[in-house]
Design brief:
Length: about 250
């Protein structure tokens, strides 16, 4: 470990690493010395990022997986352990957002958000925690949202998944912190310029109009917060970080 590479020798799994916050976090942790396991559904993007990181002198392993599939998740963890021999950091970043009034009863959208935003996190926890508990150390970072503190019209179901993640993060801290030396951080971003809304062009256009001439957060801003948390001294547990754009009015 060095001042310039405080994560040297550590291994981090980052979900949703093919774009946005996950991609920026992979770059940030790799620069800090970590070996990074990049996982998402789009393998070609992961391979491109892995090549970029390796060209810069880092170690990266791209693994296609869907967090909804427990078999996929277990495969990622098994292959990580075979390749690197350890898991020190898990960044649960994969997430989706569907926006619509509850009265429209878009049950399929609700179910998909629960599957990815909540069950996906639980799947990775179930696969990673035995190894962290055995080693007596580790750091879990859950990428939540300001919506995990207060809902917003049209985003109630999405907010519910992020409230669940906030409760899960604090419960993990209580169960794993002093007993097993495992730290837990809930990162809660405000509006970030990512691909989160790309699946709904009409909504993406409306948000872009609402944010015209306002400064949004960038994925690198959240990656910086994550790096701060995971490079803090072992006796320091950064439990929550709320990061909002200065121009966000709510």
């Amino acid at each position: 470990m060095s001042a310039t590479q405080p994560l040297a020798g550590r291994v981090a799994i980052i979900t949703g690493a093919s774009a946005g916050i996950g991609c920026a976090t992979a770059r940030s942790l790799a620069r800090a010395g970590a070996s990074v396991v990049l996982t998402a559904r789009r393998l070609e993007r992961l391979e491109s990022l892995a090549l970029e990181l390796e060209d810069a002198g880092s170690r990266a392993l791209p693994l296609a997986a869907d967090v909804v599939s427990l078999d996929d998740v277990r495969s990622v963890v098994d292959r990580t352990l075979k390749h690197f021999g350890r898991i020190d950091i898990l960044v649960n970043n994969a997430g989706i957002m569907h926006i619509a009034p509850l009265e429209e009863a878009r049950v399929d959208d609700w179910t998909r958000m629960v599957d990815v935003n909540v069950k996906g996190v639980l799947h990775f926890l179930s696969a990673v925690l035995p190894h962290m508990v055995e080693s007596g150390s580790g750091h879990i970072v859950n990428v939540g949202s300001v919506a995990g503190r207060r809902p917003f019209p049209g985003g109630t179901a999405y907010a519910a998944t992020k409230f669940a993640l906030r409760a899960l993060s604090w419960g993990l801290h209580l169960e794993l912190g002093s007993a097993h030396g495992i730290r837990v951080t809930d990162i809660q971003p405000g509006f970030v310029s990512t691909e989160l809304l790309d699946g709904d062009p009409e909504l993406a256009s409306a948000w872009a109009e609402a944010w015209d001439e306002r400064r949004t957060l960038q994925p690198e801003d959240i990656a910086r917060a994550i790096e701060f948390a995971v490079t803090s001294p072992d006796h320091v547990s950064v439990s929550e970080i709320l990061v909002r754009p200065t121009d966000q009015p709510t």
